[in-house]
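User: Please run a holo structure prediction.
Assistant: Happy to. Please share the sequence and the ligand.
User: Here you go; the ligand is zinc ion.
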Amino acid sequence: MIANYHTHTKRCGHAAGEDREYVEEAIKGGIKILGFADHAPFVYENGFVSGMRMKLSEIDGYFSSLVSLREEYKNDIKIYIGFESEYIPELVEAQDKLLSDYPLDYMIMGEHFSKPEDRCVHYNARPIDNAALTNYVDVVIEGMKSGRYKYLAHPDMPKVAEKDECFVREFTRLCEFMKENDLPVELNMLGYVAKRNYPCDEFMRIVAEVGTKMIIGCDAHSPDYLSDRSKHKAAKGYAESFGIRVMEKLPGLC
Ligand SMILES: [Zn+2]
Ligand SMILES: [Zn+2]
């Protein structure tokens, strides 16, 4: 694996290890381009504090730590500083403003929620119905159209009770949109290794049939995910078993 653009830090509250360990393990794993994309903060007007993303007070430290590691390790690895974020229409402008003063290189979309987090349930918490799946695809397409995000993380994260014709129709619509706009979808290595409901075979078949670009994201919540080449290889082999050749790097971030 040459590049990984999906790396978390302990600031999200559910990842382990120091920033430096992620960099050092990535180097050990042969990664040449390392993108940090921790769960992006949002500004909640009602003062809600999320349990799965950095606090507003931690943004400064996130950037200062990674900027200094980028300089320190520049001969061994290229570091980009990004965020993984939901696209939530009513919160997106305040988030843009919040992040506008930071040296942000990129964002990826990880749509864990389509509404403010204090008012809805995580997509992976319980099966959703057809209407909710259609809404998921609508919001993801709207968000990707905004041009903020380089790729779509764990596209098939929502738990779907029945992988029926609605599943095929909606994910085909999503994959066709991504293809037409030359945007990749992610093969989520964490989901694959941890045997979560994503990535699923049914979704992979759609990616292969439509010809959507795909890239592996480690979704590293612990540093060893970056050095464990057997995990990288297994994820790549899974894609290949569907005839999918994953892309190695993102244009503009190489
Ligand atoms: Zn996470
Ligand atoms: Zn995610």
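The chain has a mean pLDDT of 97.
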